[in-house]
Write a structure and sequence with these properties.
Rossmann fold; alpha/beta; five-stranded parallel β-sheet; globular; 204 residues; 8 helices; 13% strand
């Protein structure tokens, strides 16, 4: 259960999420990319952000490795630390949602329970789970960091897909096959979804 700091009261701003969205010219939303290491989450998230930026949208990518350099630098990769990592990211993404921003999160986030908790933090429709589906063999071929090799040799503990489980999303808003489809095609799938939900408009 989430701990609540003592003696705190939520301060309501006169500048609301709706006013920020109106100024930005688009709705805010959380795009939650999940998948195995090497599935292309970060690459896809940054490619989507680039396209959205070109459309004039206010965006920010919360990348797994980048966040562990600071906000989550004190966490390891045990199941407990992974859960805390996702809890912190979910709370940060919620704040970015209120800021009127399109927040893109690129984390393995292997456990359904933690992804569902992140979803429940925000109103219905504001959390879009994007499952980057990719065969483990392809992820291992793309292993530029050599992490899968180390995991198979027993040098890395709690490595998702090898010594720690990955629980596939059961009902993601979008499933993109990053192992079979090119980056541009995957980006297009996401932009079409955002247009269909009225979050952004390409004016075409």
């Amino acid at each position: 259960m989430k701990k609540q700091s003592a003696h705190t009261v939520w301060h309501h701003s006169t500048v609301t999420r709706g006013r920020r969205e109106e100024q930005n010219g688009h709705k805010s939303v959380i795009l939650w990319f999940t998948g195995l290491s090497g599935a292309g989450k970060s690459t896809l998230a940054h490619a989507v952000e680039e396209r959205l930026h070109q459309l004039g949208c206010r965006t920010f990518v919360l990348d797994g490795d980048n966040v562990r350099h600071g906000l989550c630098g004190d966490l390891g990769f045990t199941d407990q630390d992974r859960r805390e990592n996702i809890r912190r990211i979910a709370e940060l993404a919620k704040l970015m949602l209120e800021a009127g921003t399109i927040a893109l999160t690129a984390f393995i986030s292997p456990f359904r329970a933690e992804r569902n908790l992140a979803r429940k933090l925000v109103p219905h429709g504001d959390f879009i789970e994007i499952y980057c589906s990719c065969d483990l063999s392809i992820c291992e071929e793309r292993d530029v960091k050599g992490l899968y090799k180390k995991a198979r040799q027993g040098e890395l503990k709690h490595f998702t897909g090898i010594s720690s489980p990955y629980e596939e999303p059961e009902k993601p808003e979008l499933k993109v096959d990053t192992g079979k489809h090119c980056l541009e095609a995957c980006v297009e799938q996401i932009l079409l979804l955002l247009e269909g939900r009225g979050i952004v408009s390409r004016g075409i």
